[in-house]
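STRUCTURE REQUEST FORM
Protein name: Sensory transduction protein BceR
Source organism: Paenibacillus physcomitrellae
Requested output: structure tokens
Priority: standard
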Amino acid sequence: MFRILLIEDDQTLFQEVKERLTQWSYEVYGIGDFSQVLQEYTAIQPDLVLIDIQLPKFDGFHWCRMIRAHSNVPIIFLSSRDHPTDMVMSMQLGADDYVQKPFHFEVLVAKIQAILRRVYNYSSDPAAAFKTWCGAAVDYEKNTVTNETGAVELTRNESLILKQLIEHKNKVVSREELIRSLWEDERFVSDNTLTVNLNRLRKKLEEIGLGQQIETKVGLGYMAVEEDAL
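Status: completed
Returned output:
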């Protein structure tokens, strides 16, 4: 049974979401002390985190940053704030998705199910969990890319995007293909989410000299280049 940590100070909404998710056989935990979110997260060790932006003491962005410093656990923001800056910020901090309140519960469940499937099942084939690309070791299980220059740690979304591009290296992968393969249903995805994750992936790869190996093909999509294979 998957454990979900719901970091939400609105008790009415918390109880409603908890009750609905429990019906789907998820174990749902809340926060007792909003100044000790990281400590409570560590004690619970959830499989997924749902977090509001506006919280007592520190906002959701702060706690997302703190959790990301210790874990790649999937994180979904739930917020009534609809400014694009909030969505971009959540993606830059490593969140996996952003759901605006009020939301249809079926949409939230679909997002949770899709994320849990891809995070905990996509690397079930050990041989597929490790690849070599442009002289770098890409570990999809540990979400790392390592070469002689150094190593970078990716979020789940970044790792999955890179996996899809490498599997089709030297071929263009359209934005629509990436969205379908990662999020499974385009209706539940913000196109901006893909852009933010791709930009962040490329920026991390630049740290080890591989940023230019992800090319943008204007109007077509993206391509992972491996010159030796050309």
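Reviewer notes: The chain has two domains: 3-121, 126-229. The CA atoms of residues 143 and 156 lie 7 Å apart.
Form closed.
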